[in-house]
Amino acid sequence: MNSAPYREDTPGTGLAVLPFAVDTELTIAEIDERVEQLERDLTAHGAGPGTEVAVALPRSPGLVLALVAVMRTGAAHLALDLEHPDRMARALADSAPVCAVCAPDAADRLTSLVRAGNHGRNNNAVSGVRPASRQ
After folding, report:
1. CA distance 109 to 61
2. What is the C-alpha to C-alpha distance for residues 110 and 85, in angstroms, rounded to an integer?
3. CA 99 → CA 16, 30, 47, 95, 121, distances in Å?
4. Domain parsing of the chain, residue ranges
5. Where is the AMP-dependent synthetase/ligase domain (predicted)?
6. Cβ distance 91 to 80 under 8 Å?
7. In the CATH scheme, what architecture does the domain 28-131 have?
8. Were both Cys, which of 3, 72, 79, 101 would link to 130 (CB 3.0–4.6 Å)?
């Protein structure tokens, strides 16, 4: 797993950026290890029953692993489409994800969208945007 440290409380966003990358060929043990690590990271950033986790990943093995990790925390996932930043901004403004998972190359875009759309509607969010899945 290629992971970089998360960006704790990116100024003005209420969310931090947590890198998460997945190789294309993994053993069952490696899959479980990656899912468990992401689950621990999400839980540490507030994911659990009654919360939302934003997921902004392309269709990939990493998306599947990220969704399993979110499911294991008991949180709901908020699907964000990187190809439609206007929709992402509206979805983020209308929700209160406690953290997010995205591709490493999308972390800056997601952080910018959160910062631009953060007008106090996302007050329950805590740090935890986690870039994910590179093949």
Report:
1. 21
2. 8
3. 7, 24, 7, 11, 15
4. 28-131
5. 23-109
6. yes
7. 3-Layer(aba) Sandwich (3.40)
8. 101
- pLDDT tens-digit series, residues 2-56: 444 444 445 555 665 565 666 667 888 888 999 999 999 999 999 999 999 999 8
The side-by-side arrangement of strands in the sheet containing 129-131 is: 76-79, 52-56, 97-102, 129-131
Q: What does the chain come to in residues?
A: 135
**Considering Cα of 49, then 50, then 51, then 54, what sign does the dihedral take?**
positive
